[in-house]
Design goal:
With about 160 residues, the protein is an alpha+beta fold. It is about 30% helix and about 10% strand. It has helices at about 30-35, 40, 100-110, 115-125, 130, 140-155; strands at about 25, 50, 60-65, 70, 90, 95-100. A 4-stranded antiparallel β-sheet has the order 1-2-3-4, with no helix packed on it. It has a two-stranded antiparallel sheet with strand order 5-6. The mean pLDDT is about 90. The structure holds zinc ion (ZN).
Length: about 160
């Protein structure tokens, strides 16, 4: 699958989240500046070398082990979809897709147009994942997962009996 906002940043040193132990994914300065609350940003010495923690149950969103900086959900301006269990759960930040919207489509039509619609907009160069998505990356992977989950949950026609 073609993804739009491939981030090519490398973080040297330890990239494991201190709280959950999982490896984080490097995020750019642009993502941090766009999504971390201003008073928090001001306390950070350098925006280089930060990672995004993808663990759903971990409260850390961004971290930098070298600087001993750990930013949590409350330090970030948007709801981090993969870390939320209550609706609305954002999936695509550029075009406003939530898990609820995708599930609703599947309930009614047995499928979701999310991947198709988002892909078309990505192709047209309309996405801004680096500034809007907390992971700083394209949401299509996550959207595909949510669609799959929705089909398993709601599409009765796909069940083989
Ligand atoms: Zn973590």
């Amino acid at each position: 699958m073609k993804s739009c906002c491939d981030v090519k940043i490398k973080v040297s040193g330890n990239t494991s989240c201190k709280e959950c132990g999982n490896k984080g994914k490097p995020v750019s300065e642009i993502t941090l500046k766009s999504l971390v609350k201003e008073p928090v940003i001001e306390t950070i010495e350098s925006l280089d070398g930060f990672c995004f923690c993808e663990t759903p149950t971990c409260g850390v969103v961004y971290f930098n082990n070298e600087q001993q900086a750990y930013l949590h959900k409350e330090d970030v301006k948007v709801r981090v979809g993969i870390k939320e269990t209550e609706s609305p759960i954002p999936v695509c930040y550029c075009f406003g897709w939530t898990q609820e919207k995708i599930f609703e489509q599947i309930k009614q039509q047995g499928k979701s147009t999310a991947v198709k619609e988002i892909s078309a907009k990505v192709k047209a160069g309309e996405c801004e994942c680096e500034r809007k998505n907390p992971s700083g990356r394209c949401c299509l992977g996550e959207v595909t997962k949510v669609v799959k989950k929705g089909i398993e949950l709601y599409d009765k026609t796909s069940k083989k009996e």
